[in-house]
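Subject: for your reference before the review

Hello V.,

The reviewers asked for a structural picture of the protein, and I figured it would be easier to keep everything in one thread rather than splitting it across files. Below is the amino acid sequence we used in the manuscript, unchanged from the supplementary table.
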Amino acid sequence: MRSTVMKTRDSRTSFMYRPRTGPSLILAAYAVNAIVHLLAGRADAFVVESVTKALITLLLGCYVIVHLTDLPRRVAWPLVSAQACALAGDMVLQWGAADHLLLGMAWFAGAQAGYLWCFRAFLPARRGALVVAAVVWAAGSTLLWFALDSPLREAVALYAVLLCGMGGMAWRVSIGTGVGGLLFVVSDCLLAARRLVGVEEIPAEAVTATYLLAQVLIVCGVVTGAGARRVRGVAEVRS
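And here is what came back from the structure prediction:
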């Protein structure tokens, strides 16, 4: 038992003091790419916007991969899967026609499922976050139910279950991940208002900016949370 605790402490020390040049460069590249992506959207530079949009999740996926030795498998691989699904969803929504909305939503449902599977590995947080998520889901789904036609309204209601569940479960990991989950919910609500309800007053940049912040906060929060050993089993060994 003592040797197990010592190994856990050693692994935590190596996580904290290992050189972080690679991950820092990836996050710097992500920040630059995010700025270029926002500017390309304003300038209607479709090709640049498409390339930088693909790089959003590709860079975050690389950030997770360089931390694979630090992350338990039940945390790392769902996180990588979530980025892969988000990449597919981004490309479908970027290049697809209006009737591809359901396909894009299906890919993002896979991303939310990956995040949920990842978050469940962490220690429980306050139940209040799940209660708030349930209230947000009920209010949003009710409003959109009467604004949309079938089968889109049923698909949106089902996707909202995963989205709001992810937003509530994110608080299990860390404050940063919780804020990221909240911003993801906000971003998708703004997107739904623009594309499904037709509220053109909402700027596209607001949708994009909240999405960019959400993704990086979620991924970095999970990596940090795993480094702090808030994962189930690891924390139990330490205690």
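For the response letter, the relevant points are probably these. The CA atoms of residues 177 and 218 lie 4 Å apart. Residues 204-227 form the longest helix (24 residues).

Happy to draft the paragraph if you're swamped.

O.
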